Fold this protein.
Amino acid sequence: MGWEPWTGCYKESEGCTYCWYYGPYSKRCGQNTVVKTNDFDMPLQTVYMPRKKITKYKIESGKNVGVCFTTDFFIKEADEWRVDAWNMIKQRPDLNFMFLTKRIDRFNISLPDGWGDGYDNVTIGCTVENQEIADYRLPLFISYPIKHRLIVCGPILGAIDLSPYLQGIERVSVGGESGRDARECHFDWVLKIKAQCEKAGIPFSFRSTGSRFVKDGVLHKINPKMQHRTAREMNINTLNDNFIMTEENE
């Protein structure tokens, strides 16, 4: 399930250019004002069960909770709110929280007291779209104290060598870009990352082909409803990555 304590976002790097949610052609949202939502305190919200005469959390124990998939957990405008968000995450050690970020360079902003080497119930994913961004974000990512970390190459815009940055990574996912102006996703790029993961012994998943998928030199235009299925049908996954609930252009 998802938890959106705040919403609103804006371009951080090339991967954001045609963002499905806040990009220039978005029909779904299209706003870049970062605002707190009514679900800000969702992890602590309770419901009364009159028949059992008990009060329990709305989010049941053991659930996977995707955080900020319509924004960025480390976006600057949420610095003040993030302190309370961390506190709620700490109060629900029975839930598994996961978020992806293009702003890993802001990791040290508003870290909670007692973070230490990270919380057991938090997985942080760093997204990269090309080699330049990987070489900037990933050295920072692997240097920070985080217990559970993953890399998402999405939307992938070129060949990427992740080899220097895979130590301590739990899994890697790759996805193409969706939309009418989507840039190409080349299967060769995907296979090279898979090979890097295999060599490092890290689970890998190809999540989505994107709208413009190049395989064996042929450009295939893939219907949005078929992009995830087509990627799975390549039969190259070593991981069923159901926890990554983001779209291709997060």
Q: What stands out?
A: The mean pLDDT is 93. The radius of gyration is 18 Å. Residues 159 and 192 are 8 Å apart (CA to CA).
